[in-house]
Fold ABC transporter ATP-binding protein/permease.
Amino acid sequence: MKSIKKLLPYATPYKLFVILAPLLMALEVTMDLLQPLLLQKIIDYGIAENDTTYVIQMGTFMIIAAIIGLIGGIGCTIFSTKSAINIATDIRRDLFYKIEHLSSENRDRIGTGKLITNVTSDINSVQQAVMMTLRVFVRGPLLFIGSVMIVFFQARELFPILVIIIPILLFVIILLSRKAGIWFKRVQEALDQLNSKLQESIAGIRVVKAFVRKEYEINLFHKVNVALTNKTKVAEQIITILMPVLLFVINIGMAVTLLFGVFPIGGSTIQVGVILAFINYLNIILMALTSSSMVLMQLMRALPSADRIQEVLEISTDRVESTIDEMPIKGDVEFRNVSFSYNKNGEYVLNSISFSASHGEKIGIIGATGSGKTTLVKLFPRLYDVDHGEILIDGQNSKNISLKHIRGSIGFVTQKPFLFSGSIKSNLTYGKKDASETEMQLASKNACAEEFIQKLDARYEHPLTQEATNLSGGQKQRLSLARAFVRKPSILILDDATSAVDARSEAIILDALKSSYPKTTIFMVSSKISSILDVDKILVMEEGSLVGVGTHDELLETCTVYQEIYQTQVQTGGVMVE
Ligand SMILES: Nc1ncnc2c1ncn2[C@@H]1O[C@H](COP(=O)(O)OP(=O)(O)OP(=O)(O)O)[C@@H](O)[C@H]1O
C-alpha cells in the first residue's frame, strides 16, 4: 500500500479527471439505485391501485434516470481511462529516466529481465488498477451502501437476512484477495525470469545456432514458461472462484427471502413489491461486491507491481555532483591506492593500484584474462566507484567532478562494440550531435572505416539493423572506434578495441592514434604486446594487482609477468621481434 501511496503524486496533473470520474460514477449509481425503488412503487401503488397516470409518471422517471445514468457511466469511463493512461505514461517515462541513470552496480543487481517487466507488465498492472479503481471502486461501495440503506428503510423485515449474508460475503472476499495478492507477486517474479531468458536467448541466438543448442534453449524457455503458466493459473483460479462463491451465498439469501413471502412473520405478510425490490437489491449488492472485489484483486495484482516500480524509482544515483568549477579536462590521470570489489564483500578485483599518466601520454594495459584490465578502465568514467583510494583527474578527485563532465571528456571503446539501429552517421555522431561531415570522415579514416563505408551504396546513411547485425565484427569495431574519435576526447580508452581488426588496419589505427590525437591521453587495453609496443608506458596487471609499470624495454628487464607474456607471444608468433 505504501508504494501505491508513493505513486499517488502521479495523479496530481490529472486531478480534474480523477475527481470527475468517480463523481460521474456516483451519478450513475444513484440512478441505478432509484430503479428498483421506482419499480416497487409502480407495482405496489400504480398496478395495485390501477392508477395508470401514476404508472406512466414513474415509468418516465425510470427512463430519465436510465439516461442520466448512461451519461454518468460514459463520462466516468472516458475520464478514468484518460487518467489511468496518462499516469502510466508518466511513470513509464520516469522509470526509463531512472533506468538510464542507474549505476552499473544497481543495473547488475536488478537485472535486465526485471527492468523490462517493470516498464511493461508492472506499469500495465498499475494502469489497470487505476482505471478499475476510478470506474468501479466508487461504484461498488456506493451501490452496496445505498442498497443496504434502502433495504433498511424500505424493507426492514428482510434486513436481518443482510446482517447474516454480508459478513460471510466480506470474509470470502478478503480471504481470496489476500491469497490472490501473494500469487500475483509470484507471477511477476516468474515473468522476470521469462523476460531474462527471452532476452538472453535472442541476444545469443547466433551462439545457440552455432552450438546446435536450439533444443536446449527451447527446453529452458519451456521450463520458465511452464512456471509462469502454473503460477498464473493459480492466481486466476483464485479470482474466478470468487464469483460462484458469492453467487451461492446470495442465492441462499434469495431462497430465504421467498420463504418469508410464503410464511408470513408475526402474522403480517410482506408486500410482493417489497420482496421483489429486496431481491433486486440483493442482486445489486452481489454486483457491487463482485465488482469491488475484482478491483480489490486488481489492486492486489498491482500492489507487488507498484512495490517493484517504487524499488527502481527510489534508487538514488548517490553520486556527489560537481563541487568545483568545471574547467575543460586536460587528461592528467592519477590512481592513488585504488581498490575495488564488485560484490562489496571484501573480494577485491583491484588491489591498491597506483600509477599516473600525463595528458597526451599513450598507456598500454596488459595482463592475463580476468586480471582486472577492463575493471580498471571502467573506473575512469565512474561506471563504478572505487571502494578505497582515489582517482585524480587533472589533480581533482574524480568524485568531485560531475559525471556529465567526466563522461563528456572521455571516449570509451568497449571490448564488445555496440551500435544502435539507425544509420552509420547517427551512430558516429552519437557523442557529438553537431559533428561536421569533415570531422566524421576524418574519424572514420583514422579508424580505418572510411574505406568500407565508401563502398556502401548509401555510404554514411547506410542503415544499421538492431545491434548492427548487418556489419562484420571488424566493421563494427571500426565504427565504434570512429564514434569515439569524433568526440575528440581528452581521455580515450580502448578496451581491446582492435581485436577484430586485421593486422594492417590495426597498424594504421595505431599510427593515427599517435599522429592525430597528440593531446589525448590514451589507455589501450590489449592482450597483444604488438599493439602496445610503442606506447609511453605499459601497466602490467596480474590478479588485480599492478605488477609492472614501464616501457616495453624496461619491463623486459624488470617484470617477470611481462617477460612471460612476451615469451609466450614470441613463441606463438604474436610479437614481431626486430
Ligand atoms: N560485473 C561484474 N560483476 C562481478 N564480477 C565481475 C564483473 N565484471 C568482471 N568481474 C570479475 O572481475 C575480475 C576481473 O575482470 P575484468 O573484466 O576486469 O578482467 P580483464 O583483465 O579485463 O579480462 P579479459 O582480458 O578477459 O577481458 C574477473 O574475475 C571477473 O570475473
Observations:
- The chain has a mean pLDDT of 87.
- The first helix runs from residue 2 to 7.
- The CA atoms of residues 256 and 560 lie 95 Å apart.
